[in-house]
Amino acid sequence: MMTDTWTWATVTAVSPLRIKVDGDTSALDATTDDLVGSLAVDDRVRVHLHSDGIIVAGVQGGGAPEATAATPNTLALRDGDGQLKAADGVAADDVATVGQLSVAASLPDAVDLDDYTTPGLWHQDSNARAATGTNYPAPYAGLLEVFNGTQSGTFVYQRYTTYGTQIAVYQRTFYGGTWYGWNLVGGNDTGWVDITVRAGFAANSTSERPQVRKKNGFILSKGLFANTGMAANGSYTVGDLPSGFAPPVNVIGRTGTSSGGTTASLFFTSGGSVIIRTSGTLSGYYGIGGYTWTTD
Known about the structure:
Layout: E1 5-14, E2 17-21, E3 32-34, E4 44-50, E5 53-59, E6 76-78, E7 84-86, H1 98-101, E8 105-106, E9 120-124, H2 127-132, E10 142-148, E11 155-162, E12 169-175, E13 178-179, E14 183-186, E15 189-194, E16 196-197, E17 211-215, E18 218-222, E19 224-226, E20 235-240, E21 251-257, E22 264-268, E23 273-277, E24 285-287, E25 292-293
């Protein structure tokens, strides 16, 4: 079996192309792919021997053609020393050069990150636009990286890195038509992130809006819900935790009220919902602060 190696050889025939590797006594009887063109008998060539065959990558005194524009059959070329050279991308589906990969395209306002399944880099430079977008892991500007595990796009991987003092790294995956939730994989502190208040309910005030924070692996909660949309002796799903913040099992406790009592019940569910169950006396507001849990 041929080993994966680079070596020098001599052309012994051109139609079909045959080469004799330095040190061998006869030409190799195997299909040889030519990346150089216009070879002649006795040319000295640089070849790549691998399990699938032989590739002539360069000729002594000439080298391989410069890796310029990509073609339907050429994503990259090797020079006469066997160094891989990326071709410049021309069409949208061409392989990008290192330089092209280092510059991210911009994410516009109100986009859905579920729609980004093509490999590449995108940058969101505005917290406000991140907040109006859909399926961001946090409402902060940052860098989105997309990777495909297969050519068919069955497996897609996204990584989102927030910037500045809120720096954190999130990852999620797509498989079989389903996006799975974001997970915080780097960064020690997400800062306070808003709980999404469901329609018909309200935060008690802007400064007291319900929020959660992931810090050193623990989720913290704070804030107040107004009694908008509630009545005595009722059960209400008032909000939804951000993706990646739900506890593995329901967290159940009491919620503080405007009267100073703790007669109402509070649930942070494993599905990411926030539920308040009121008592016989309706409170002016319901506090959710002081709870802590992990996500695993």
